[in-house]
Amino acid sequence: MKIGIVGIGALGSLWATKLRQAGHDVLAITRDHSPRSISITLDQQAEFEIPANNLTQLSICQAIIITVKSTQVKQAIEPLFEYLPSNIPLIFLHNGMGALDQLGEQWNQHSLYLATTTQAAFKPSSQQVKHTGIGQTLIGTYRKTKLTPQLDSIIQVLDSALPKVVWHKQINDALWQKLAINCVINPMTAIYHCKNGELLQSQYQTEVDNLINECHQVMQAAGQNQSLSELSSTIKQVMLATGDNFSSMHQDIHHQRTTEIDFITGFLLQKAAQHQIACPHHQALYQKIKQLEESFI
Ligand code: KPL
């Protein structure tokens, strides 16, 4: 198969190298559309030379995986519109919710899919990627797209290159769950300069529990039926399992980059306002992250 990967950050590089390793053709699309090829070493073992930025070849790809951050989805995908026939499945993989809602009406005819993953990758340098955590990738519908036989065979290809990849009938549930995890872990670790696991320490418990509680109220109002104790144990399990990691928002703040706060806490606050639910703890974190971002300008 020929698969396009838009965004060659840690996850994009992981997908590009794993698909090449499995014998597929990969076309990488980088931010500035300039290099004709990129070279990436996977786990300090195999080096892959990957053709890049030949935009006319997008039309012969069987699927495109868009791995840019939620803040970059619109600016990464809009310039590719003229090269992308509407029948090619576009699979968006990023933290947060609401990024696709910002795309213009011209995308309504395209086959857009949403994905979420617990695979973890780290890019120690621009030419290296490390697969730091084995997880699974769930793919599901955005608005009215369906699991077609074409998409089913793409899922099989993706699953054999970087297992596990499965179709999820209720992707919204999985996205809400990941949103709640990110709403609690990401801003707190960025503000308190700590690793994910440190949030399990007693000094953070009251704030963590208040944040989970507010998330739970909004999720209930949005039709998510998980119990508070289930949600709490899921979030705390992720803190434990990724205990030694610095969250993506911690890294963004550390490198003085714009964070995904608008698509994480911002999305939660938007839904909270629609349902008239007060979320003072999330609101406070949102404002602190915004203040930090403003101090970088
Ligand atoms: O998704 C993550 C992130 O850092 O963005 C978690 C799950 C918190 C892992 O670090």
Could you characterize the architecture of this molecule?
The protein has 297 residues and is α/β, with parallel strands linked by helices. It folds into 2 domains: 2-169, 3-Layer(aba) Sandwich (Rossmann fold); 172-296, Orthogonal Bundle (N-(1-d-carboxylethyl)-l-norvaline Dehydrogenase, domain 2), CATH 1.10.1040. It has helices at residues 10-21, 73-77, 149-161, 171-191, 205-221, 228-241, 248-254, 265-274, 280-295; strands spanning 2-6, 25-29, 37-42, 46-51, 63-66, 90-93, 112-117, 120-125, 128-133, 137-141, 165-167. Strands 2-1-5-6-7-10-11 form a 7-stranded mixed beta sheet. A 4-stranded mixed beta sheet has the order 4-3-9-8, with helices on one face. Helix 8 packs across helix 9 (280-295). The longest helix has 21 residues, at 171-191. The radius of gyration is 19 Å and the shape is globular. 42% of the residues are buried. Ketopantoate binds at residues 95, 181-182, 185-186, 196, 238, 242, 245, 247-248. Ketopantoate binds next to helix 4.
